[in-house]
Amino acid sequence: MTTHPAAPELACDIFCAVVDNFGDIGVCWRLARQLRDEHGWRVRLFVDDLKAFHALCPEVDATLARQEAMGIAIEHWREPTHAGDTLAIADVVIEAFACELPHAYIAAMARRDPKPVWINLEYLSGEDWVADFHMRPSPHPRYPLDKSFFFPGLGKGTGGVLKERDLDARRARFDAAAWWRERAGIERPGAAQTVVSLFAYENPAVDSLLAQWRDGDAPVVVLVPEGRISGALARFFGLPKFSAGMTARAGALEAHALGFVEQPRFDELLWAADINFVRGEDSFVRAQWAKKPFVWHIYPQADDAHVPKLDAALAHYTRALDATERDAVTRFWHAWNGAGVPDWADFWGHRRALEARAARWADELARIGDLAGNLVAHATSRIVR
Ligand code: TRH
After folding, report:
1. For a pocket test of ligand 1, which of 16, 18, 19, 21 has the largest count of ligand atoms closer than 8 A to its C-beta?
2. Which of 281, 282, 325, 370 is an active site residue?
């Protein structure tokens, strides 16, 4: 742990309601660890779904009301009103993704002297308007509480995205040969094979893509973490299921199903592949730090609210590509998100340009600063002592 002798240890409560999948708790868990490890904060995490949490951190026991893992106090947030048996209010309170804090907790926040800093941590979006709302006050209708928005983003003037201080060093130390033997049970593929990692929701475009890989001239190795897309792989290969440890082959395509790993190890999959298909929020961010080409399956929202977010991310990521490359990436991402049929040869024909862009984009993104550090600066500037 990095200690900060000059700074007092601040207490922070993070509230996380799991809507579905792993992204809500994925972001909160990563942030909690960073606040603890890199900033020396004392963190308590309230989570309503410990089963999803257990998948990311097997140390978490889904049956316990209260426990500690990796230096973080974890409370099973059982009902809307529950906020721990004691109402000790932290210095900084983070409401993740506009989940509603317990009323008793809010009332206790209002009674606390000095008042806590209350932060509404929003979902990530690369859209331009985000910078205008980032860190803006969000007054409470009833209580005189200091609440403000905190917007992750991909551009200047936003909160940025999470990036641990040791991430690049861990990536540089990654032992690919050992990883392939341990995780996929085979020797690392040679340069002639393209390695694809496939983490996605159910996706009607996947059959066409698998068929293109199967029928293509160049060998493709696909790594598929067990999950929502596994059923499509099973159907494609005519198998009853496609679960961890299974391998399937057809034409030029070879696929390996992988088990779900604890969150700190997820990056290794991205480092092992040549191109990463990712989804939601947290894996989308990790793919950017992996400095490899990637394709985003965005979380679909009602009324296609996700489409401008997809295009905003494309605008950032493809900014420095030439028009042909940019169009190919845009077509492929759109097809993977329901608009059209993906054309692998058209897209992967730009492999070298995409690889170069991926490395530069990660450097550009890093210039905004890491979200945890930005959030600490924002919170500490508002703390009343
Ligand atoms: O799981 P996601 O789709 O999560 C979400 C939620 O659906 C949420 O409601 C939505 O609002 C949000 O996306 C945008 O995708 P995401 O965000 O990539 O989270 C997956 C997490 O799972 C991420 O932290 C990486 C982790 N993971 C592992 O820890 N081990 C694994 O083996 C795999 C495959 C993933």
Report:
1. 21
2. 281
Mean of the pLDDT values across residues 341-360?
A: 98
- Both tokens of 345, joined, read 């040869």
CATH number of 167-366: 3.40.50
Determine the atom of ligand 1 nearest the C-alpha atom of 298: 14
How many angstroms separate the CA atoms of 341 and 273, rounded? 23
Task: Let me know if 113 is a catalytic residue.
Answer: no
Rounded Cα distance between 213 and 193, Å, is: 11
Residue 314 and residue 161: Cα distance in Å, rounded?
Answer: 16
Whether 86 shows a pLDDT value over 80: the answer reads no
What residues does each domain of the chain span?
Answer: 11-161+368-382, 167-366
Instruction: Check if 24 is active-site.
Output: yes
Q: Which two tokens stand for residue 153?
A: 């983003």
Does the pLDDT of residue 250 top 60, yes or no? yes
Q: Is the pLDDT of residue 3 over 50?
A: no
Distance 54 CA to ligand 1 centre (A): 13
pLDDT confidence of residue 112? 93
Instruction: Answer yes or no: are the C-beta atoms of 337 and 127 closer than 8 Å.
Output: no
* Atom number in ligand 1 closest to CA 284: 18
Q: Which of 24, 48, 95, 267 is catalytic?
A: 24
Please compute the mean of the pLDDT values over residues 284-293 and round it to a whole number. 98
Among protein residues, the one with the nearest Cα to ligand 1's atom 22 is 22
The pTM of this model reads 0.96
Q: Report the chain's mean pLDDT, rounded to a whole number.
A: 95
CA 350 → CA 258, 292, 326, 354, distances in Å? 28, 13, 10, 6
